[in-house]
Design brief:
By secondary structure, the protein is of the alpha+beta class. It is built from 16 helices and 16 strands.
């Protein structure tokens, strides 16, 4: 078979594009936990401090209503990517794939030379040879500190680096943390050295989910049987092993039966069989076929396209179809909701509960009756420094200034991250409601706020809480005299 055109150029390798993405993802995930804005991280789910940091904004556990939206974004994003690009997440973004490629292609093949060729992933090294055992041991020794680093990086999204290293200095009191790091590191070593791509094939549930998400326009690695010839029958039995046999039946078949696309596959499949759940869309087979066919002046028989375009030959792949647009709309909508809800974050936490006793009365020296209502304030300062807090009472129209704060009489301090319990008493000497039948429930709003360095109300650290002031009926007031 002769080359058809000297003008044909072999396209750039998908494998190197993946390497660049892996390097970027690795550096990004390692650096991100160290970046803070006003002491807040981009993402941190701290069970130790009961906090969620999102986009450099701190939320406390009482504000975890945001987590369902984050999970919806993650799952809908992955499902949307699958509808559009098949199992591209597995081949290009999945941490398991990245760890495995780093170990197999970088450590075993490039650094220690245990594997001879990156393009041959089917043939395992002969471990009966002493030199291969030494190389294997060396590869594992290199992988151990990298696995510990990866495990630590994983933990940094739950225990920030500044706390993580402080805890390492007091190991005896943080054995659970050390155990988790070691456990994650050991799992990574088991995964990339022993389990390998079997994780993708047998363990990961995503491969089972993807089959219900695919449609005829989903982009994936596909073998063009119209050009290459049908190597397998409908029952997936192999018909041909040599090019001569194939061309005897299909004279125009272009497949050379070199099986370069087979030997390079990390999940050990033959892409010429058609769609298989084990395919992770790494596009190694596309590169392999492009290299072989490129030498013959022809485009690759394995391409990243859809059934609609390659198998059924109905026309061009439709990327922006109703299903994909639906996912985009959902993701945008959830992002907007998340942004709006996040923008309404309160910069102090306050719960207000009335005491069991509805009210108390007291006759003053001037003969007036004072009615007291007591409340339990549970306040938490979510800022980084100690602050002073106070509050004011907002009453209905016509009662302004009639309900006053009996105690506390001055602002009180609250330390960062510590819940402070404060008994608050509101009182009035005015007749708010003159009812002979029952006690009256008067709706009030409590405006709690921080006091800045200038002694003024903070506009940022301010919350409003609805409550009620119970005013006794007329008979109770008369009995008090």
């Amino acid at each position: 078979m002769n080359a058809q055109s000297n003008d044909f150029t072999i396209p750039k390798s998908w494998r190197y594009k993946r390497y660049y993405l892996y390097a970027f993802a690795t550096i990004f995930t390692l650096v991100l936990p160290w970046i803070t804005v006003n002491g807040n991280h981009f993402f941190l789910l701290s069970f130790d401090k009961l906090q969620l940091h999102l986009a450099f904004i701190q939320f406390d556990m009482q504000e975890l209503y945001l987590m369902p939206f984050l999970l919806m974004l993650m799952f809908l994003g992955i499902f949307g990517i699958t509808v559009l690009g098949g199992r591209v997440f597995c081949g290009w973004l999945c941490p398991q794939t990245i760890f495995r490629v780093f170990y197999r292609d970088l450590i075993e093949t490039t650094i220690v030379g245990l594997r001879k060729r990156i393009k041959n992933k089917q043939q395992e090294p002969d471990m009966s040879l002493r030199k291969n055992k030494i190389k294997k041991a060396l590869a594992v020794m290199i992988a151990i500190p990298l696995s510990i680093l990866a495990a630590s990086d994983f933990i940094w999204y739950f225990v920030p680096p500044e706390d993580f290293f402080a805890y390492l200095g007091d190991i005896s009191n943080h054995l659970t943390l050390i155990g988790i790091v070691i456990g994650v590191a050991l799992f990574l070593l088991y995964d990339i050295i022993i389990l390998k791509e079997n994780f993708c094939v047998y363990v990961c549930p995503y491969s089972r989910v993807q089959s219900i998400l695919y449609d005829e326009h989903t982009v994936m690695a596909l073998y063009d049987m119209h050009r290459g010839g049908e190597i397998y029958d409908k029952d997936h039995n192999k018909n041909f092993t040599k090019q001569k046999e194939l061309q005897a039946v299909t004279p125009n078949a272009e497949c050379t039966t070199c099986e370069a696309c087979v030997t390079v596959c990390p999940t050990h499949i033959d892409i010429r069989k058609g769609l298989q759940l084990e395919c992770i869309n790494c596009l190694e087979c596309v590169d392999a076929c492009a290299t072989v066919m490129g030498k013959l002046g022809k485009p690759s028989l394995v391409t990243w396209s859809s059934d609609y375009e390659i198998v059924d030959r109905k026309g061009k792949t439709k990327y922006f179809r109703p299903k994909v647009i639906g996912y985009i709309v959902l993701l945008i909508g959830i992002s907007i909701i998340l942004g709006v809800m996040g923008s309404k974050k309160e910069h102090m936490l306050l719960n207000i509960n009335k005491e069991n006793r509805l009210y108390s009365t007291k006759v003053l020296p001037d003969g007036k009756i004072r009615v007291d209502n007591s409340y339990v304030f549970l306040l938490q300062n979510t800022q980084k420094e100690k602050m002073k807090f106070y509050f004011e009472i907002i009453t209905p129209e016509g009662m302004k200034g009639k309900v006053k704060i009996l105690k506390p009489t001055k602002a009180f301090e609250a330390k960062p991250g510590v819940r402070k319990k404060k008994i608050v008493t509101l009182s009035t000497t005015d007749v708010l409601v003159n009812s002979s039948r029952k006690d009256s429930v008067i709706p009030i709003t409590i405006h709690a706020y921080a006091i800045d360095k200038d002694g003024k109300k903070s506009e940022k650290i301010s919350v409003l809480r609805k409550s009620s002031f119970i005013y006794p009926k007329e008979s109770v007031l008369k009995a008090s005299k």
